[in-house]
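Continuing from yesterday's entry. The apo prediction looked reasonable, so today I'm repeating it with adenosine-5'-triphosphate included to see how the binding region is handled. Same sequence as before; SMILES copied from the compound registry.
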Amino acid sequence: MPSADPSAIILEARGLCFLREDEPVFGPLDFALRAGEIALVEGDNGSGKTTLMRVLTGMLRPGEGEVRLDGATFSLDTMAGAVVFLGHQLGLKLDLSPRENLRVSSGLYGQREGADADLALAEVGLSGFEDEPVRRLSAGQKKRAALARLLIVPARVWLLDEPYANLDREGIALVNRLLEGHAQRGGAALVTSHGAVRFAGGEPRRIRLHA
Ligand SMILES: Nc1ncnc2c1ncn2[C@@H]1O[C@H](COP(=O)(O)OP(=O)(O)OP(=O)(O)O)[C@@H](O)[C@H]1O
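Holo prediction written out below.
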């Protein structure tokens, strides 16, 4: 990951809209996320927070406007490996263990220099559960297993849809710790949350969606 250059825009949306049956779900939306920045995406139920995340990963095509990564127009090629999405569906293979799931993730998205699966699992509080099939883990432990992926893959942009859901107070602090470390390494993140979020670094940037 490059060192943090606070002036470098990593992810940018310009006049971004998503249309469903010609009706806008959100937008037009403009924002620029720089290295080391974390922004909270806010909006009422149904305002399009999850849809925005899906557009930014390339799973959905924007109706209008564009997404830029490092100044280049979005394409699945430029996003691959640079962006990681953690959504309501955690993307875990239930028959595999947390350790095996991390191996699958690094096979698909690459591995950050110096990343270590067991250290990542210890950091998210899953020591002793490394080899347990994921289906036997609690909802909070499953969430932690998915969060460990963030410590393994090299992506500079994290898109986290409701990362605090199913987590206790300690888990919420863990998410904040992961975000803080990511920002310090020069990464950027967009986070949605229904609850109040307290980032250790103070008030987060806010991107507001209107239903
Ligand atoms: N697959 C779909 N087909 C049709 N409409 C959909 C689909 N997914 C979402 N929608 C609609 O698109 C709008 C935006 O949904 P989205 O899930 O992005 O909102 P959200 O802000 O994430 O909501 P919440 O806060 O409730 O999670 C809503 O009106 C929703 O009903």
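Comparison notes:
- Residues 26 and 48 are 6 Å apart (CA to CA).
- The mean pLDDT is 89.
Will overlay with the apo model tomorrow.
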